[in-house]
Amino acid sequence: MAELDVIFAPALAPDDLVGLELHLLDTIARHETAPVLLIYGSPGRAISIGRYHLYGGAAERDGINVMRRLTGGRVVGAGQGWLGLALILPTRTALLKEDVTRLKPDQIMNRYARGLLSGMRALGVDCFYPGRDAITFEQRELAMCTFETDAAGAMLFEASIAHNRGMEELVHDLERIDADGALSCRMYDAASATKVVRELDRDITFDEIADAIASGYRGSLGETRRRELTAIETAQAQYRGRAIAASNWLRGPVAGPMTLRNRIASQLGAIEAAVALGDDKTIETIRLSGDFIANSPAIAELESELRGRTLDLPSISHAVTKTFGHDGNFFLGASELSNLARLIAGVN
Length: 348
What we know:
This protein has two domains: 4-246, Bira Bifunctional Protein, Domain 2 (BirA Bifunctional Protein, domain 2); 260-345, CO dehydrogenase flavoprotein, C-terminal domain (Enolase-like, domain 1), CATH 3.30.390. The longest helix has 19 residues, at 105-123. By secondary structure, it is α+β, with helices and mostly antiparallel strands. It has an eight-stranded mixed β-sheet, sandwiched between helices. A four-stranded mixed β-sheet has the order 4-5-3-6, with helices on one face. The protein has a three-stranded antiparallel β-sheet with strand order 13-14-15, with helices on one face. It has helices spanning 14-29, 105-123, 167-177, 196-200, 206-221, 231-246, 296-306, 313-324, 337-345, and strands at residues 4-9, 36-40, 45-49, 60-61, 64-68, 76-79, 82-89, 128-131, 134-137, 140-149, 155-162, 224-226, 260-265, 270-277, 283-290, 293-294, 331-332.
């Protein structure tokens, strides 16, 4: 079996993408399927919101669709004009050829972005990963990356690459779909954002970019094998995609009224904590939202750990440290865990 299967899917519907990723996370975690590098495009004009964004608006407006990723992170462009990458592994260090015991969670994206960087450089776009979640060319954002690990430990690393539409177009789309400004996004222009066609000064096809990226990952991660989606994978993508769409995945679960809120600027944008207190003044419900990258089991663990605690900094800090003070869980975007604790404790 090849170390890494490579699949091109130039017209993958957003719901099918999420369904396929869920299916592959399960089968790859059980070692029933080899690790997969999925390079895809999606039809239509879209905005991709992160797992932890609050969104109560329309799924479509003025020809612009909204989709929600399995991973956290910022709002980014999707669909026509963007190329997506999903690397799915049984563990977050499965294919790394180095001493992984010293790798911190925030170094994981650095390692898995290297194949993308190599592919872009082979095309003539000498881009870099300066840290956090952005891939840049001459300090202009060209792509965004993020990752998730599920309860079984399987990893999904994702990247969104500006092919012939970029973050400067996203800003205008976001104004149309989210006029109330619930989704945060910095302002971009030609000096702060770019796209592949602009830097190459020519049109370039999906296949040409995808071939270059696949070659880059072959160089950074080892042996690859090109294949098509199987009939089972296609069926599961559609079945699980429809199921998650029907579950109100786009808008997320309704947590009930939150009476206390606090919001801080973060490394990636903004993070909000909202809390409902019980009659005994302990935490009954808590919800973290916004621009951060974390493994979803850890967020559920933290929310569970905080229930019943008093809303004071020592108690909150203990819960945050207990949840994220080891390498199994990760929270990226708040800089220090103490900032996350102060955010939650400051809701009163």
